[in-house]
Amino acid sequence: MAPTSDINHLSHPCIYGDFVSSYTERKSGFMKWFGKIFNIGSSRGRGGGRHLQQPVEENMVWPAPARSLDDRARSRKEEEDLDHAIALSLGENFKRPTGYRWRTGTDEDYAKALQDRRFSSAHPPYAPVPFYPRGYGVPLHNRTCGGCNQEILYGNCLGVGHSYFHPDCFRCHSCRYPITEREFSLSGKHPYHKSCFKELTHPKCEVCHQYIPINAAGLIEYRCHPYWNQKYCPSHEYDNTARCCSCERLESRGERYYRLEDGRILCFECMESAITDTGECQPLYHSIRDYYEGMNMKIDQQVPMLLVGREALNEAIVGEKNGFHHLPETRGLCLSEEQTVTSVYRWPRIGGHRLISMRSQAQRLPRKCEVTAILVLYGLPRLLTGAILAHELMHAWLRLKGYQNLSLEVEEGICQVLSYMWLDAEVMSCARTTPSTSSSASSSSYSNSSKKGVKSLVENKLGEFFMNQIANDSSPAYGGGFRAANQAVNKYGLRCTLEHIRLTGNFPL
Question: Cβ contacts of residue 140 below 8 Å, gap of 6+?
Fold first, then answer.
């Protein structure tokens, strides 16, 4: 891209030299004028005198005119006429606009050469000062072309700032074609077509693929996702543009996100690794229980885990008396009350970017211990589903270990730390074991390999995004609680932090 600093939009570049008629016509006109000068002096009282004829070829030989004592008066008169003609010519030259004048030094040399030839006593071959068409025959002060770095000798040239160009060398720095328009853009020392410069510097919306409009203040205003750097027009925030419920990216024109039966929307990347029903989620659930056991935090009770839809989860939230929920949308819940919930036991088939024929069943959850069940929204990517399970399993561990009457910030904060730790372990293992496969693999094979534990770069990027969400959450309980808990764990370790929470109900300082 071209640099955006010191940008000037220039118009009407300075043109040096001009175009006139053909070379032959201009030569003929000049010689007629030249002949008239001598005709004036020779027509006064010199019958049978020799008149200079207009030369037809450039290398003709002019015989010197016969000179006598009687011709001296006429010679002085001819000198005066010649000086007068030269003065008139120079006067007309000064009336020309700047950039189109003949060089003054050349005129004087030219006149001097004419006078020297007129009074020469020898008969040298006629070798006149070369005549060039205006704008072609006069060197332009040894200027160097800024395009080809060659000296500009003859012809028109363009002056841009302190640089000069042959017309064909004045080219766009982007497309490399000559700039022929009257207006162009200049960035640093590089010229651009206005259209090329706009293409390089004016941001385009990644949703509608149009140039982002200028607001009433004359500024380019756009929205940008803080993690994905997706730039889009401000209007897309309220024009019902679809947004992925998992990664928060907006649906671009020409793409179709997946619509779930409960109204949620998933992008392609999140859909490819989505956990779809309760049976499919069991291996992931048991692997996270093993993760807890590896940290000497084994969960002794067999706590049921169910994937549910949005409506079923909201109903369970209403029935849960002591639940802590992350608004605006809850994705998981650790139940401690006896309830009947509807779980998804068969993943629906995909039809026209919609999921249809989803099967569910009502399931009674009797209370046999402090924790009744763990509920998680269906259809979320594997890493997000695992992060929710790690969070809810920490709630279960705290209740089963007798941690009571904890503040919202302390309980949610330490649960977010366990979720973050599990994600970090998964992302690190993904970086070590990612196979060097083509990113253009089919979605079906990609989806199957992802769910079986073979992670991809795309899934790894999603995991980093979910970690970023936890670390930068703005809510006091989840965001503030996580940062306080994470600081304590980094300083004292997880075991000492949990022991301090059990004794005091707060994080160690």
Answer: 16, 17, 152, 153, 157, 164
Kindly indicate whether the domain formed by 143-200 is annotated with CATH number 3.40.190.10: no
**Which one, of 96, 169, 107, lies nearest residue 137 by Cα?**
107
Instruction: Please determine, for residue 17, whether its predicted confidence score (pLDDT) is greater than 60.
Output: no
Pairing of strands 163-165, 143-144: unpaired
Provide the 3-class DSSP secondary structure of residue 11: strand
- Specify the DSSP class assigned to residue 478: I
Strand pairing partners for 16? 157
Closest listed residue to residue 54, CA positions, set 128, 110, 135, 115: 128
Grouping H, G, I as helix, E, B as strand and the rest as coil, residue 489 is helix
Is the whole-model pTM more than 0.70?
Answer: no
Nearest to 310 by CA among 242, 245, 377, 357: 377
Question: Burial, 254: exposed, middle or buried (Cβ in 10 Å; 0-12, 13-18, 19+)?
Answer: exposed
Give the burial class of 234: count Cβ atoms within 10 A of its Cβ; 0-12 exposed, 13-18 middle, 19 or more buried.
middle
Helix (H) or strand (E) holding 308: strand 305-308
Burial of residue 207 (CB within 10 Å: 0-12, 13-18, 19+) is buried
User: If DSSP codes are grouped into helix, strand and coil, which group holds residue 346?
Assistant: strand
CB 28 within 8 A of CB 146: no
Domains of the chain, by residue range, sit at: 143-200, 214-271, 273-431+455-504
**Pair 231, 224: CB distance under 8 Å:** yes
207: pLDDT strictly greater than 50: yes
- CA dist 165 to 173, 185, 193, 233, Å? 14, 16, 16, 40
Closest among 392, 214, 216 to 303, alpha carbons compared: 392
Model confidence at 383: pLDDT above 90? yes
Using DSSP, state whether 169 is helix, strand or coil: helix
* Helix intervals (H) in 373-480: 382-400, 408-433, 443-451, 457-471
* Omega prior to 283 cis, within 30 of 0: no
- 385-412 pLDDT, tens per residue? 999 999 999 999 999 998 988 999 999 9
Residue with tokens 């073979």: 454
Three-state SS for 249-307 is CECCCCCCCEECCCCCEECHHHHHCECCCHHHHHHHHHHHHHHHHHCCCCCCCCCCEEE
Residue 336 has pLDDT above 60, yes or no: yes
pLDDT digits (tens, 9 = 90+) for 119-175: 544 444 544 444 444 444 444 457 888 888 888 887 777 887 778 888 888 888 889
